[in-house]
Design goal:
Length: 302
Amino acid sequence: MKIFIDKNTLMKIFKDRVLFDVSAKSLTSFKTGGILPVVVFPSNKQEIEFLLSLEKNGIPVKFLGAGSNVLVSDYGFDGIIASTKNFSGVEYQDGVLNTLAGTRTNSVIGYCIKNQLTGLEFLAGIPGSIGGCLIMNAGTKNKSISDVVGVVEYINHDGEWINEKKENLLWKYRYSQIKEKSFFISSCTLKVEDGDADIIKQTIANIMQKRKTSQPLEYPSAGSVFKNPSGHYAGRLIEQTGLKGFRIGDAVVSEKHANFIVNLGKATSSDIWKIICHIQETVKKQYNINLETEIEIVGRFS
Ligand SMILES: Cc1cc2nc3c(=O)[nH]c(=O)nc-3n(C[C@H](O)[C@H](O)[C@H](O)COP(=O)(O)OP(=O)(O)OC[C@H]3O[C@@H](n4cnc5c(N)ncnc54)[C@H](O)[C@@H]3O)c2cc1C
């Protein structure tokens, strides 16, 4: 199905902040995917409300932060991709960081180092935007963003802007209820404490060193492809099936970390998708365990 989108209206509203026929490779950490017919870069709430009105009229709208947790189809996306990058900025006030949702985690960490604020070091090496982190409840085995968030501001599917306390939302391992409730997250508060810049820097350096040793950061990827099933590690299950090094085209199951699929250069999203399906089938057959993807599939796959 091809969706009709009026280019003139989009250009009138977004001016030079609308692009046509953009490669998904430029917007995703996998560096794969087809041509996206329309990409907009909203920079205020009115433009978000306009996008919601389009969605209500049958034009799908998909927000992308850093694109570090998505696999976008080689057929692109039949609708509008909206980058959150213009919603960016951090400000400290009374023990919290007021953070716009498009702000990248590394900017937040940089701000914390500069202002000697501790509590968010665990975000080091998670290459997303704060909005993406909230949608995914991103984190590590020790800490998730739900542990530090206070209030989330979002617009719901009825067009109401809401300031929701974290306690009123359900948060689980790599799941947040905000994904269903929100059309778009605009900002949040993150809890921080006074700290020492040298200690913060050292903690981050240690985290990054560990990631470098255990993850294939030299290749494009979207981090862990599968969620850990209860009582298991997805990476260990994949490794035990002997699938490390399993390759289709230029996509391969990393030798360094079996839950990573990396792009050796010219992988397509379809190559990655085929590996995902093969891993799921193999793990199901050998262990009777269903592996659920942590990454989000955007667009059409067959
Ligand atoms: C090398 C590497 C390491 C990683 N390590 C980790 C890790 O340790 N822990 C972890 O949890 N994740 C990890 N990830 C995955 C990823 O970085 C996180 O899931 C991150 O939170 C995704 O943020 P993003 O901005 O890239 O989201 P995107 O991929 O852009 O989007 C993810 C989802 O969020 C939605 N979204 C984004 N912003 C908004 C918004 N403002 N409003 C509404 N919806 C929005 C999108 O529509 C999509 O549904 C890793 C990824 C890589 C490449």
